[in-house]
């Protein structure tokens, strides 16, 4: 019920994870169709980049203003921080405050004076501003670090390397918010280099009971997780895509013209292959560098045909080997018979 600085940075991390989910599933997929020259009607979806910018913008973001309050001289309180938010974020559509100069929030009696509210992608969350400044400072005083570094226990000494007199830094220690922001940025950079798979967990009910589904709760989670937009993109788009070269290499044994070797361009080989298999034209599209297959059943059909063809090829190889082995044995026996017969006629 009471959300403070800890919940705020956790929700910030959730916003960034949702943003990379949007980037890698909805935005990237639709942009790929355009890059590949596939006919496509853009599907609208909510991009939470505006919420991330509200929190992490280097000049007007909430974290930046919190750091500014923590570092500026003079009397600094949670109220002065909230006042600064009210001035800078007053007109932001995802920020709400009772003290905001924006008149549309002045009549909102459900919002206390010492709180602000952010409309996250998953819904509105109200934060108690009390303690934000102190928790963000998170100062470990230098004399305490130096005392810990002088401890005789090696583990304690290793935990406080900043207490080493040779490494004393007169700069103010970084705030908790800036450290968390840097950690999130490193995480996002790492995820961008991967090819992640997503598992979305849906909470069926609030009571943690088995076999009980609350329709309203489930629908709410499906909406704010962006699953509806994702399903629409998937249904309107293509279930499978692959570059021409590996596609031809995998399925070339299904067509006599492409097996065992295709001498022309890979795309031309795939076109001949799909034409020979008589796959309906509405089931696939040719991009600039990839083949796009609309329905999974078409891919399953190709895999079944490939499996059957591999079995046929294995049978053919076995048949040829057994024939070669029997013929070799027969020729050996024939030569032996000729030798035996010639020697027999010589002495007969």
UniProtKB/TrEMBL annotation:
A GO biological process held by the record: endocytosis
Residue span, Myosin motor domain: 1-307
GO cellular component terms, semicolon-separated: brush border; cytoplasm; microvillus; myosin complex; plasma membrane
Region spans: Actin-binding: 184-206
PROSITE patterns in alphabetical order: MYOSIN_MOTOR
Alphabetized SUPFAM superfamilies for the sequence: P-loop containing nucleoside triphosphate hydrolases (SSF52540)
Molecular function (Gene Ontology), one example: microfilament motor activity
Pfam families per the UniProt record, alphabetical: Myosin_head (PF00063)
Keyword set, alphabetical order: Actin-binding, ATP-binding, Calmodulin-binding, Motor protein, Myosin, Nucleotide-binding, Repeat
Alphabetized SMART domains for the sequence: MYSc
Keyword Hydrolase: no
Protein name: MYO1B protein
Organism the protein comes from: Oriolus oriolus
Gene that produces this protein: Myo1b
